[in-house]
């Protein structure tokens, strides 16, 4: 029997995954933040950046430092470019995710949360025992992103259009967190799911 359980957390942009991740962390889950891993694999001069610079030369300087905003403008308005980016970067991210899961398990962590906005796109759902997705109404998500990222409504729409639908997350997840209300409502749903996961793990 495996000595740990991996729960994958994903969902729509602006659906409040950070609140969910923090709640799980407060309940004995070791959290792997895939956005942080993505920043590590795309740090200046990395092998990943050298590979990406051949595909998106306008997004890099001579030291292979990535201009993230410039890259976002390209990939969120062109599906082929986004697919090309994902095909290149995901193997690096998945490698580091696997290493981090093994590291956390070796330290005795029984509960691991993989916080991954592109969980399905990266194929990282295959590393998880349970999938949890956050969803919220489009208007609410747009307001949250505008406040958080300070970007235009057009860029927000482009981001939404590049992502999977709410129905996809519902159909491919073990648990759904509806995050249309306040933080307390999201936390309450999290606590119920955490209890079920721990009960399932401990038999």
Give an account of the 3D structure:
The longest helix has 28 residues, at 79-106. The protein starts with a strand and ends with a helix. The chain has a five-stranded parallel β-sheet with strand order 2-3-1-4-5, with helices on both faces. 54% of the residues lie in helices and 13% in strands. It has a single domain (5-195), classed as P-loop containing nucleotide triphosphate hydrolases (Rossmann fold), CATH 3.40.50. It is α/β, with parallel strands linked by helices. The mean pLDDT is 94. The protein has helices at 17-25, 34-41, 47-55, 68-75, 79-106, 138-149, 153-161, 166-171, 183-202; strands at 5-11, 30-33, 111-115, 130-135, 175-178. The chain contains nine helices and five strands; from the N terminus they run E-H-E-H-H-H-H-E-E-H-H-H-E-H.
How would you summarize the topology of this molecule?
Layout: E1 5-11, H1 17-25, E2 30-33, H2 34-41, H3 47-55, H4 68-75, H5 79-106, E3 111-115, E4 130-135, H6 138-149, H7 153-161, H8 166-171, E5 175-178, H9 183-202
Parallel strand pairs: 1-3, 1-4, 2-3, 4-5
Helix pairs in contact: 1-9, 2-5, 3-5
